[in-house]
Amino acid sequence: MLTKRIIPCLDVTGGRVVKGISFVQLRDAGDPAELAAFYDKEGADELVFLDITASSDNRNIMVDVVSRVAAQVFIPLTVGGGLRTLDDMRHILESGADKVGVNSAAIKNPGLITDGARKFGSQCVVVAIDAKRVGKTAAVSPGPLGLDDRTRWEVYINGGRTPMGIDALKWAVRAAELGAGEILLTSMDADGHLTGYDLELTRAVCEAVNIPVIASGGAGKLEHLYDGIVAGKADAVLAASIFHYGTYSIRQAKEYLAARGIPVRL
To answer: If you ran DSSP here, which 8-state letter would residue 195 be given?
Structure first.
């Protein structure tokens, strides 16, 4: 079995790391570069940096902040938020990122995934999907990605502000077909609530695609990380609150998982 990854996430706005509940009620969690250095020393497997207001504010990502963060880490760094073009991707990679995360722009221009994979390699392209449970509903948009009476989750863009009427599961499958190397899957319903990942959503996506999936949104206990990997079938688990505010350390998380038979890098 491949080693499972523990990934802290830096949600950044206004140059500061924040954490919210279901993408709202944001509170400060610290300086991005300082937290990045801390997690690097703690033994995190990777780090995700998301400029969460770049798309909704229609601005470019804060490259200076990205550069400061990249200078502090020697682990893979994924950076997303406001990346709209191949030039944006290249600029971020040149600023120190190892992977680029695309969300809103990929929904609007799916060809960006394929172009990015061809230009930089599929391993560099992470498609972030923010999904919200909608239950069974009638179709609200035409086409192969529209919601139907079997749909359970809808894709949102612009930092969770704009519903797109797109089936999250179908979009994940299409993103993989277009060349994405990985999917960062966030449950908007679970985000920040500390009650665990949306395991049904995570498992559905993991079973539907043949690329790695990172479970995100809802981790509040170490057992939630275990559940995300075992029940959710995720290749990696992302968390913010439990690490930012000192509830658990990266080491504690890995030792807990190792004790329960999950292969991790200690």
So the answer is: S
Q: What is the biggest distance separating any 2 CA atoms in the chain, rounded to whole angstroms?
A: 49
**Beta-strand relationship, 99-102 and 24-30:** unpaired
Buried b (16+ CB within 10 A) or exposed e, 184-211: bbbbbbbbbebebbbbebbbbbbeebeb
Measuring CA to CA, which residue among 108, 126, 171, 120 is closest to residue 145? Answer: 171
36-63 tens-digit pLDDT: 999 999 999 999 999 877 776 776 677 8
- Please say if 148 is a catalytic residue: no
What pTM was computed for the model? 0.91
pLDDT at 142: 43
Task: For residue 74, give both structure tokens.
Answer: 């020697």
Q: How many CB atoms lie within 10 A of CB 59?
A: 12
Q: Considering only CA atoms, give the Rg of the chain.
A: 17
Q: Which residues contact 42 (CB under 8 A, 6 or more apart)?
A: 249, 250, 251
Q: How far apart are CA 175 and CA 63, in angstroms?
A: 26
Q: Does residue 11 carry a catalytic annotation?
A: yes
Question: Would you call 226 exposed, middle or buried from its count of C-beta atoms within 10 A (0-12, 13-18, 19+)?
Answer: buried
Give me the catalytic one of 40, 45, 130, 167: 130
Residue 90 to residues 36, 69, 83, 170, 181, Cα–Cα distance (Å): 22, 17, 10, 28, 16
> Cα–Cα–Cα angle for 102, 108, 111, nearest 5°?
70
Q: How many residues does the chain have?
A: 266
Residue 210 Cα to chain centre, angstroms: 17
Helix 168-178 to helix 111-120 angle (10° resolution) is 40
